[in-house]
Design goal:
The chain is of the alpha/beta class. It has 2 domains: 6-69, Chemotaxis Receptor Methyltransferase Cher, domain 1 (Orthogonal Bundle), CATH 1.10.155; 80-271, Rossmann fold (3-Layer(aba) Sandwich). The chain has helices at residues 6-20, 29-42, 48-57, 59-69, 80-97, 113-128, 147-155, 168-174, 186-189, 223-236, 255-258; strands at residues 103-107, 139-144, 157-158, 175-178, 181-184, 192-196, 209-214, 237-245, 259-263, 268-271. The protein has a 7-stranded mixed β-sheet with strand order 6-2-1-7-8-10-9. Strands 3-5-4 form a 3-stranded antiparallel β-sheet. Strand 9 (259-263) and strand 10 (268-271) form a beta hairpin. Helix 1 (6-20) runs parallel beside helix 3 (48-57). The longest helix has 18 residues, at 80-97. Bound molecules: S-adenosylmethionine. S-adenosylmethionine (SAM) binds next to loops.
């Protein structure tokens, strides 16, 4: 049984904020407590103070804690219906309107499966429009707070399990074998620029985007932080630009005045043209 110790909780979160470089203030309280408890149970300790002792003794526990706090589960073509909607209609329209000069941002990209899926869809749409060369014009910025995930994104080598939701052409056309795994092809990787960015405390990249993905990231943030981010995304979108959220996320705050709903099920919004 884990004791109800508010002071211990505060001391631990202060230390984690300081030493792990995470702004925990912006994380939902319940979410934070649940995640900490998962690690405490895994270490068989019952108090926050004991858990701090574990962090002192076992440096590797820091990595496990960071993973637990910034869960970075992702897959290629995650939520296939969302990608299908983009592929069939929205992406070809955007590419056509911008003559291939599409600027996109995957905010909270984890290990890169999302931005690479988008790059593959751009290649598909460009080829279908008879402009395969447009892929040289596509710019996808992929950001995340987690350095290890970003390292994996840069390596771009993934096990078969990362493709469970993806149609066969994703590996067949756009990856090459790397032993048991798959490496994303160079022409796809070239479209994606990977950077570290903490959405809770750094200014968002100064740019105008046609497409912003922020899926399964804001669920960890409290409402004021979500509203602030959504407002920034709405501002950063070009007229006619598209915002895609995760399937359980809801657009909140002033961003609702700037963005109109395109697809309620897939959480797709568009800035007025
Ligand atoms: C569940 S993954 C989502 C990956 C991908 N967008 C998807 O839906 O498949 C959540 C990602 O958000 C990142 N994240 C959490 N807090 C963040 C923050 N403050 N700034 C930037 N990224 C953050 C985590 O590191 C993690 O990679």
């Amino acid at each position: 049984m884990i004791v109800d110790d508010e002071e211990g909780f505060r001391a631990l979160t202060r230390r984690v904020s300081r030493e792990a470089g995470l702004t925990l203030d912006a994380y939902k309280d319940k979410c934070l407590r649940r995640r900490l408890l998962v690690r405490m149970r895994a270490c068989s300790v019952h108090t926050y103070a004991e858990y701090m002792g574990v962090l002192d003794r076992k440096p590797e526990e820091w990595e496990k804690l960071k993973d637990a706090l910034t869960i970075n589960v992702t897959r290629f073509y995650r939520n296939a219906e969302t990608w299908d909607r983009l592929r069939q209609e929205l992406l070809p329209g955007l590419l056509q309107a911008r003559n291939g000069r599409l600027a996109a941002w995957s905010a909270g990209c984890s290990s890169g499966e999302e931005p690479y899926t988008l790059a593959m869809l751009c290649a598909e749409s460009a080829a279908a429009a008879g402009h395969a060369g447009w892929t040289d014009r596509v710019r996808i910025t992929a950001t995340d707070i987690d350095r290890e995930s970003l390292e994996r994104a840069r390596n771009a080598v993934y096990p078969q399990a990362s493709f469970l939701e993806a149609p066969a052409w994703v590996t067949g056309k756009y990856c090459e074998r790397a032993g048991e795994s798959w490496r994303v092809r160079e022409d796809i990787r070239r479209m994606v620029t990977i950077k570290r960015l903490d959405l809770t405390r750094e200014a968002i990249p100064v740019a105008a985007y046609d497409l912003i993905f922020c899926r399964n990231v804001v669920i960890y943030f409290d409402r004021p932080m979500q509203e602030r981010l959504f407002a920034q995304f709405a501002e950063a979108l070009l007229p006619g630009g598209i915002l895609v959220l995760g399937k359980v996320e809801t657009l909140l705050g002033v961003a609702r005045e700037k963005l109109t709903l395109v697809d309620a099920r897939e959480r797709i919004f568009r800035r007025a043209a």
